[in-house]
Structure formats: C-alpha cells, structure tokens
Write the structure tokens for this entry.
Amino acid sequence: PPDVIDLYKLRTLTFIVLGFAGFLRISELKSLKCSDVLFKEDHLQLFIRSSKTDQTNKGQNVLIAKTGKVTCPYNTLDLYFKKGNVNISDDLFLFRQLSFHKSKNSYSFKNNFGLSYTRFRELFREILSDLGLNPDLYGTHSLRRGGATASAMHDISDRLFKKHGRWQSEKAKD
C-alpha cells in the first residue's frame, strides 16, 4: 500500500519496474533525470539521452503503458514523485542518494548525486533477498532481459518488441 512504503524501498521498486517494463539497462536508469519523464493520460514517456543502442546519439524515447495493476510502472513512478516531493521539470537525477531523518522516521533526497552502478546493484540484491530470492542468481541485466523475455512470452509482435527494446537488427534482438 502507498501509505506504508517508504521512499527508500519505493526508489528500488521504481527502478525495478521501470527497468523491467522499459527493457532498460542500469546505465540508462542511472542517467535518467526528472525532466526526462513525461506523464501522458495512458502512458509515460522516458527520454533516454544516451544508450548503447542509440547509434545516432540523438537520444531515444521509451513509452511505458499505464496498466493499473499493482506493478504498474506509471503509478509507481507517480507515487515516487509524490513521496519524494519531486518536481518533474527539475534537471536532477531521478534516482539519487537519500538521507534518513530519525526525528521524522523518514527519508528525503540528500543531493543531486545519482546512484552509482554499484549502489543500484546493492539495492537490487537487497530487495531480492527481502523477497526470499537468491541474489546470486540475478544480475542487473535481469531487468532488461526479464522484461524482454516476459514480452516475448506474451506474443508481442516482433516489430513492436524490437522497437521497444531499441534493437536495430534481428540478431541483436534475438
């Protein structure tokens, strides 16, 4: 429930559902800025400024549908913005360091330092352990790979699948 989850756990949950739904790499997640997010009525749009698959270096948009389910990336990101008191027009890193305030028993953003790859990995492993899963069986690439695999298993057309994953060739997609 939204009123129970703290900003610390919500940050991890948000990058996991975005990474999974958007077939995103950790390098793409860690470079996202608040201003790279655009909420539409039925989907959200993420502007990926730089990516391994962006051969023109112009950036790429990733669209993620609003599902209304408990795992909905749109609703999770919206809650993250609200809980963190984040302004969508800020040119601050979306995923950044937190401070814990004992007097309030809550977290707030510490600064504009984005999370390192190592910190993303630690948070990912931590949540897997919390869920009773063996973190040694998963890597951060599991988000991109897992999202792509889940989509492929639900008979998403090859054209749409390839476009969403931002793959240029059939060989890369496969």
About this structure: The longest helix spans residues 7-22. The helical segments are 7-22, 26-31, 73-83, 117-130, 142-153, 158-165, 170-173. The mean pLDDT is 83.
